[in-house]
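Researcher: Next sequence.
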Amino acid sequence: MVTNILTYLEESAARWPDKTAIADDKNSLTFARWLDYSERIGTAISEGTGGMVHKPVLVFVDRRIEGLVGFTGVVESGNFYVPIDCRMPGQRVKLIHDVLNPVAAITVTGADSAILDMIDFKGARFNYEEVVTREVNHVQLDNTRSEMIDLDPVYAIFTSGSTGIPKGVLISHRGMIDLAEWLVDRFGFDETDSLGNQTPFYFDGSVKDICVCLKAGATLNIIGKKYFTFPKLLIQFLNERQITSILWATSAIVLVGNSDILDNNVPRNLKRVTFAGEAMPAKQLNIWMKKLPGVKFYNLYGPTEVTVDCTCYEVNREFRDDEYIPIGNNCENKNVLVLNEDNKLAKVGEPGELCVRGTGLALGYYNNKEKTREVFVQNPLHDLYDDKIYRTGDIVRYNDRGEIEFMSRKDFQIKHMGNRIELGEIEIAINSIPGVTNAACIYDQPGEKIVLYYTTSDGKEVNVINHLQAKLPRYMFPNVVNHLKVMPHNMNGKVDKIELKRMYEVENV
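Model: Next structure:
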């Protein structure tokens, strides 16, 4: 029985010791060397913290392999890793630090150390280049491992908090193990696969790449940011590295779909494309599917709190440009419930909040019992035994095919002119307009106005309202329309609606 995610690294190192496990633009490591470095880092942390376990350790990450090795090194020590973007504003790092009170940190550059100085970090510091030269204390590591169970924490990833304080979502080994098993079994990954990682390591979507690499023995190639700035180089990279699978954020799929790069060249080795993070508009996906007819496409859905994904949909039919792709049905060992306003199971076509149960549920928000109790609650369908569900805040519905369709966020529902409206429905209609590359709506509650922000492929405005005449009732038309050159995105690659609200407030002071 697998109870620790490191078991997969150890098995892959035994089966394919000299195979490249992880690679970035400059460096690469074999599975054997990855395991060796992890044990050295684990030894250093264990000895440097007096054998502390189950404590948070910061790991500074960028588009480089050192972060991945740091992750597994932390786990070797019996602690859990917390990814910190090396470009993250110091104030946010400070907020995360204050929530965690971490016992240690792994740095790579002098800039990383400077951030620790700025936030007055008191824990043990470990420079990557130094600790990978330490002697391994196998007795210490073995003793630590013997005391660990699958419900111990393996990582914490921070999401934005409504109060301004970030929330640290704490995930167990069991949650990550279940994800790894499901990914490999469901999609048939093996050691011949080569992954192209796009998702930043401080974002939970990257955990899928890590799981597949560890469990299946696939090579994980880290794609540098410059390749998404120059898409021609991106396709060249995918072909040079013989990438067979990409598990990308929806925004990255949309970015490529909005460019014309697939008209001239395509990734020749691709077998699978998965996307997650936001609702996927069909318009951009249709471009991918037309250019890559032999590739399988999958829409994955899930919040950070359920260990990355809880539903999956294989795109197996055609969709109009004004549709969104369904999020499908539950992943293995995860049960999804669609609950209406009366906390009853919603009927077909009836909107409801998507809730999730299963061992993939997070252990909660670190050092935040109040927020944990708000969303990790007893299953309202019964009260016979302890049966926790996570309330996602996402509004979905079942279609006539039995597939779950994402509609909107609970907090994106509005009451406008006496009508209940999903802002996501307006966004779908606008995204389908020719030339529109992205659309996002916010609501001005005091002014009772639907506010639209959109971008176009040629940078020119379009008559949005004219196009909506045949698509939406008049009460759903945006009252304010703003054309942008670039749509703001947050650190997770999603459209930043908080920034859009700020922009609107500044413009309407």
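Model: The two ends are 60 Å apart (CA to CA). The chain has a mean pLDDT of 94.
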